């Protein structure tokens, strides 16, 4: 982890928040990161490979339409609705004080326009930014989240989930016939998200067992944590837990210790597809309240009984964000916590406990962390949004190259090529 | 442009105004670790060691410039503090067990004020021949001894010499400029004059003084004075002049006699050693814009590329387009000689490193074999690098005898290599206030780039750790550019306006010097960013294939056969992701 080095940094004109960063993952492997700042400016950052094999960072300000002057951006989220191409859908929640007493709140959804045969033009991010559908909100928006709505006999649909100041989570779904988005009743699709009695600061939903089951966690401002397992086809809550902390919950996250990354099919000579075997996957839940972080191990079997407090997470001011990533490339996920004390703390699971292995200092409070491949070389970069700007940190190439070579040789030996 | 953010920093309060050259990093007390020395216009001198203020010396007058170097020429550093109101102070750490002369002088606590009247009188009478004020007998010895013992334990700096010099000094440089093996002190004045001095201790014990050698007048305001070695090893002074131009002064030892009778003659010959370089397109630049210059940039590993660029710019010195498209034939043709040159430069570096420890050892035995770059005679113990700079390579602390052996054996060998290497001089860099940064070698502009910030300081620092110097240019608004000699650039934004700036290798923890950027803000604070390192100046993607064996590569190619380039790229990405994150 010490081998993470500054690759790039760019400043923000105004600060963001914990909902300000999202990633745009294209099918062809090129990824971008979108960062919103409070005062209306939205930047995209990507890397271009130059002819001399150097990488050049490209930071652009994106001009999204229908964000009036004076409006403030609260949250941003994006997903790719297409399996084969780039069909980005970007959601931005904004808040605008129209008069002294009233505020207007909107969810702006940007998506590609009607395909008019122009090919690429309709799907470029600049074109998407010009194509807006607005949903007026009667509440102040918080976390904007998207998840899959599994459906029988139809491709899975992606819906927006938006937590609001009205102590509810709202589901906003595309109405294809009217070419608009509208709210549908949440208890019909997500009974576990109905009636939560708190302002959800963070939502996380994890589907397992081939989309037959899902695990849902909600962290609330009042310190409430709702956990539920739901049978998706019957829409029945199977088990649920309620926990109460005396501090706001800033982040919740469901993760497994191991990442299941499919072996590239061109490596398999006998064409046997290795399916993910997630019956055996143990799911853990990370609950971050502002003071410390707690991990509940193997929730599906143990319930919310086996909790491990991350020792040392209380040493660096208020914890604002978290990220689950295999940052040391050992096949096992680490927990990264970003704090108001300008640090990223990294915890590693060793000997049945989580140990603080690295603290890395940044220039300002850390609002959001993301571990993704922005350079399209297969190696992921750590992207850290702080109050002042965005840091992109790259692993030391030489170290990773050694690791790559070693593993490639091992792979060749195993396959006796 | 790539930008980075450095976060490891130290911060100190520093009441007072720091002049542009009023701060420097160097080993001021000869303990092997580098300190930061800052002088203020209010007459206070601050020495920072590790994470703390180590010593504060008040009452010096208007400090405009400080330098750390071997001004006494016996292999140990002293601190030269020059005041704009016409005083030169020399401080020395009593920790040394070196020549008795210094101990004799260092027992004296100087009280300048008491003798002010007297000095000023002398100073007025006679500006060129400076009066020494060495108040050996003005204090009772008992009191002084007590002080001294205290200081000797802590190694704190003591004032060992104060002298009246002409006023309006802007910057000071301690370097050997006439190839005589002894260091000179070079002053650049705001009244367009460059002066050189040498420490003379040939009078009675403890009675040395700085003796004026030369005076050169420039046509215009002086930007910076820097040392630059020519292709044959001759040291020259480059004096930056407005509009991105400079004056070059060659001073030979024979021109620098101290005797009065030769003084007149020497001034004449000195004049003939001055030339003025306008660097090609100087008319394109603003004639009145102030200029910074930094000489003797190390380029060790990157010799090949810079040679190449040198050739390239020969062909088309106006355009910068050809930089990336390397012509193969040119490279092939030059391949042989370049490998020679590279070897040469490595062994030079090697030789220099080997000799350096002999100067840094704290046992006082500072006289070791010294290989001086270039095949001229060694007159006394010193090498030809800038004094603040030579302490940075301290590997391989071997015995002196070993170094001597090495010297004997490999002298001729090194000489040959050196000649190879130094057929081309080292590159030097210029920057103007309007934002032009140029890298120049043998008076040919290798490249230049334009930034839209007002650059006021130009320094060197090896941030990549490859042995070649990067150029660090700092603008008034805190924007800092780090450029390597191949024109790759990295930007760092310091968040406040900057009053003074310097770079160097500072020891936050003893024994581990790290590259540092030092900023003095207008809010009376000093910020020292330490561990300013970048693995490389450019970001590159992970490309593991280039290092594979032929066999392994073939297997990979088989796996990826029948792919278009984009497919291949995607598959490689998948493979890398799987190898790094899917296996263990």
From TrEMBL, chain A:
One cellular component (GO) term of this entry: actin cytoskeleton
One Gene Ontology molecular-function label: actin filament binding
Top-rank lineage group of the source organism: Eukaryota
GO biological process terms held by the UniProt record: actin filament organization; cellular response to amino acid starvation; negative regulation of TORC1 signaling
Name the UniProt record assigns to this protein: Kaptin
Lineage: Eukaryota, Metazoa, Ecdysozoa, Arthropoda, Hexapoda
From TrEMBL, chain B:
Residue spans of biased composition, Basic and acidic residues class: 350-362
GO biological process, one term: regulation of TOR signaling
Coiled coil region boundaries: none
InterPro entries cross-referenced by the UniProt entry: Integrin_alpha_N (IPR028994), KICSTOR_ITFG2 (IPR031793)
Domain of life: Eukaryota
Start and end residues of each stretch annotated as Disordered: 313-366
Pfam families: Itfg2
Protein known as: Integrin-alpha FG-GAP repeat-containing protein 2
Organism annotation: Melipona bicolor
């Amino acid at each position: 982890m010490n081998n993470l080095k500054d690759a790039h940094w760019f400043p923000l004109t105004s600060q963001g928040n914990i909902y300000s960063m999202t990633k745009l993952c294209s099918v062809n492997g090129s990824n971008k990161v979108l960062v919103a700042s409070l005062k209306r400016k939205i930047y995209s950052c990507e890397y271009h490979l130059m002819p001399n094999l150097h990488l050049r960072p490209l930071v652009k300000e994106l001009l999204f339409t229908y964000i009036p002057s004076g409006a403030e951006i609260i949250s941003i989220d994006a997903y790719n609705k297409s399996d084969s191409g780039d069909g980005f859908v970007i959601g931005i929640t904004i808040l605008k004080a129209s008069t002294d007493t009233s505020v207007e709140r909107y969810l702006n959804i940007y998506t590609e326009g009607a395909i008019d045969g122009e090919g690429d033009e309709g799907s470029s991010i600049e074109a998407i930014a010009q194509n807006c559908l607005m949903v007026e909100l009667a509440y102040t928006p918080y976390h904007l989240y998207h998840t899959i709505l599994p459906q029988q006999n139809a491709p899975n649909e992606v819906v927006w989930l938006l937590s609001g100041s009205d102590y509810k989570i709202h589901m906003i779904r595309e109405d294809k016939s009217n070419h608009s988005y509208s709210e549908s009743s949440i208890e019909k699709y997500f009974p576990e998200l109905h009636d939560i009695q708190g302002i959800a600061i963070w939502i996380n939903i994890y589907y397992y067992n081939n989309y037959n089951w899902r695990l849902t966690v909600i962290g609330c401002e009042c310190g409430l944590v709702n956990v539920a397992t739901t049978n998706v086809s019957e829409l029945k809550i199977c088990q649920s837990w309620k926990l109460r902390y005396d501090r706001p919950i800033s982040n919740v996250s469901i993760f497994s210790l191991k990442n299941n990354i499919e072996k590239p099919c061109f490596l398999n000579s006998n064409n046997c597809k290795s399916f993910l075997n997630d019956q055996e996957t143990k799911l853990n839940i990370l609950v971050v309240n502002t003071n410390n972080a707690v991990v509940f191990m193997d929730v599906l079997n143990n319930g919310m009984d086996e909790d491990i407090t991350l020792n040392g997470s209380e040493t660096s001011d208020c914890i604002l964000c978290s990220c689950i990533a295999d940052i040391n490339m050992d096949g096992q996920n680490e927990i990264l916590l970003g704090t108001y004390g300008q640090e990223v703390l990294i915890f590693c699971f060793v000997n049945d406990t989580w140990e603080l292995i690295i603290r890395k200092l940044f220039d300002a409070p850390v609002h959001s962390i993301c571990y993704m491949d922005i350079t399209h070389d297969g190696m992921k970069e750590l992207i850290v949004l702080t109050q002042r700007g965005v840091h992109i940190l790259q692993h030391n190439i030489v170290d990773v190259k050694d690791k790559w070579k070693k593993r490639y040789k091992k792979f060749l030996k195993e396959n006796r090529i | 442009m790539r930008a980075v953010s450095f976060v490891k920093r130290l911060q100190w309060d520093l009441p007072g105004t720091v002049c542009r050259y009023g701060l420097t990093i160097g080993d001021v007390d000869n303990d092997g670790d580098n300190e930061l020395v800052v002088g203020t216009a209010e007459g206070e001198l601050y020495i920072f060691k590790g994470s703390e203020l180590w010593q504060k010396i008040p009452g010096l007058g208007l400090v405009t410039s400080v330098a750390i170097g071997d001004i006494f020429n016996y292999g140990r550093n002293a601190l030269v503090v020059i005041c704009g109101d016409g005083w030169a102070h020399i401080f020395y750490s009593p920790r040394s067990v070196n020549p008795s002369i210094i101990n004799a002088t260092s027992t004296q606590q100087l009280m300048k004020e008491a003798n002010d009247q007297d000095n000023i009188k002398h100073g007025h009478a006679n500006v060129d021949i400076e009066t020494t004020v060495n108040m050996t007998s003005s204090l009772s010895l008992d009191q002084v001894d007590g002080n001294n013992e205290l200081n000797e334990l802590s190694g704190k700096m003591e004032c060992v010499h104060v002298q009246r010099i002409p006023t309006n000094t802007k910057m000071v440089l301690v370097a050997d400029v006439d190839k005589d093996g002894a260091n000179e002190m070079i002053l650049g004045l705001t009244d367009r004059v460059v002066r050189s001095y040498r420490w003379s201790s040939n009078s009675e014990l403890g009675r040395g003084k700085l003796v004026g050698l030369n005076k050169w007048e420039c046509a215009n305001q002086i930007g910076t004075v820097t040392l630059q070695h020519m292709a044959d090893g001759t040291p020259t002074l480059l004096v930056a002049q407005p509009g991105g131009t400079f004056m070059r002064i060659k001073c030979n030892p024979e021109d620098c006699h101290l005797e009065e009778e030769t003084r007149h003659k020497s001034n004449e010959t000195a004049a003939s050693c001055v030339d003025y370089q306008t660097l090609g397109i100087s008319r394109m630049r603003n004639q009145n814009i102030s200029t910074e210059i930094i000489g003797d940039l190390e380029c060790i590993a990157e010799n090949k590329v810079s040679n190449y660029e040198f050739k390239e710019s020969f062909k088309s010195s106006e355009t910068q387009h050809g930089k990336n498209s390397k012509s193969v034939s040119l490279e092939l043709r030059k391949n042989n000689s370049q490998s020679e040159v590279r070897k040469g430069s490595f062994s030079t570096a090697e030789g220099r490193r080997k000799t350096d420890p002999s100067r840094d050892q704290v046992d006082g035995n500072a006289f070791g074999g010294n290989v001086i770059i270039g095949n001229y005679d060694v007159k006394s113990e010193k090498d030809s690098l800038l004094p603040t700079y030579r302490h940075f390579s301290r590997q391989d602390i071997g015995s002196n005898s070993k170094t001597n052996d090495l010297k004997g054996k490999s002298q001729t060998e090194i000489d040959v290599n050196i000649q190879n290497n130094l057929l081309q001089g080292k590159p030097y860099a210029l920057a103007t206030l309007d934002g032009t940064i140029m890298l120049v070698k043998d008076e040919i502009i290798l490249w230049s780039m334009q930034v839209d910030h007002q650059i006021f300081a130009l320094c060197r620092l090896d941030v990549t750790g490859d042995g070649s110097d990067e150029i660090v240019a700092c603008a008034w608004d805190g924007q800092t550019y780090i450029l390597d000699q191949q024109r790759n650039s990295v930007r760092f934004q310091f968040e406040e306006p900057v009053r003074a700036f310097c770079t160097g290798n500072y020891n936050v923890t003893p024994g581990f010097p790290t590259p540092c950027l030092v900023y003095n803000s207008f809010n009376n604070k000093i910020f020292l960013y330490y561990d300013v390192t970048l693995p490389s100046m450019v970001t590159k993607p992970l490309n593991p294939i280039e290092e594979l064996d032929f066999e392994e590569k073939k297997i990979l190619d088989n796996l990826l056969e029948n792919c278009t380039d984009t497919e291949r790229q995607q598959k490689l990405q998948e493979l890398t992701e799987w190898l790094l994150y899917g296996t263990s």
